[in-house]
Amino acid sequence: MQTSIKWIIRLSTLSLCFILFGIMYSGVSYAADPSNQASVSGKVIDRQGLPVKDATVKYWLNYRGDTSEKSVKTDGNGRYRIIESVEDNTDITFVIEAEGYVTYRHYGSYGLSGGEQIQLDFHIYEPITIVGTVKDQAGRPVPDARIKVTSVFDRIVKTDQQGRYAVTGIDYAYNPNIAIWVDADDYMLYEQDRLSVREGGTLRVDVVLAEAAHVRGKVVDESGNPVSGAKVNAGGSATTDAQGNYLIKRVPTGARTITGEATGYLKTSLSVTLVKGDHNTFNIVLKKDADITPPVTKYRLVPITDTVNGKIYIKGFTFRLQATDEVKGSGVKTTQYRINGGEWKNYEGPVKFYAPDVKVVEYYSTDVAGNQEKYNKMDFVNGTFEGNGTFEGESYDD
Fold this sequence. Notes:
- The chain has 398 residues and is mainly β.
- The chain is built from one helix and 32 strands.
- Helix content is 6%, strand content 49%.
- Pfam families: CarboxypepD_reg (PF13620).
């Protein structure tokens, strides 16, 4: 009797294992509550309409923020079937994966309710492949060049010792205008876009890289002190740091002019020949901009008139000033004036004054370098003037 009971237990356990095994490998997810079951079924096919077997259909069920991930496999005819117990308005989203095909992310979701049946086919396609070589201008292979292609930015492919490369898994649907970037130390960056190739196709792109030079050095004044914030240009540009150092990466090799400039200094140029790599060090000496010439201030008087007994009288003037500095000067900083020997005031616009209140007007300007102009003086009592004269456009029409 005990032997029979043991066999019954063993047979029951074995039967349960077969049932569980069948559920796990049937390619179908079964719901625990048949009354709330919803189903999604269909086919996974390629662009030619042929079935794709053993494709993985991943799906996510989301109900009120609670998400679960599951998957099923397609059969030999590319068919799949999902059965789930769901609450009303459960969202389902899909991602399709198959060996030799681009991963397909189905944008958008579907709302499922109990008893609902959805027929949904997925079209997947083969990836694009780009192959080729990377060489320098002398025809020598460039090993370890780094290659990126549109849609696979997260993957960098390097050339082998013969300069050969192959990039696959390129997603045509991501962007039909495929672009490629080739980057290698001591060479100029190579970029080509709008490569024309269809899904599943292979394109050959052979790349020739131009040699690049890295330019570095120091910018100092005539006493050897570093000049920070100086602008250096050598086909690319850089700004010096607090120690006067600069570094410009990847500019074309060959004859080139390097320029350095900074506020308060004269612009300096060097004619150099750049070679490949980080073997180009050029120090730049900037000379102080010796601005010793003061600005020039000119005036303009526009009469203010009145009519008395049919006669026109001048009762005052609108007084205007215009200050200029030399072309390479430091620039005008301030213009000041005073009336009748009074307090100096900054000139900010036209000033009106009336006779006989005003007897003497004086004015001058100062540039950024501190050069101060000699006083200009207008003596209305004696009818004398000392200064730089009037600026263009003087007239008696305001």
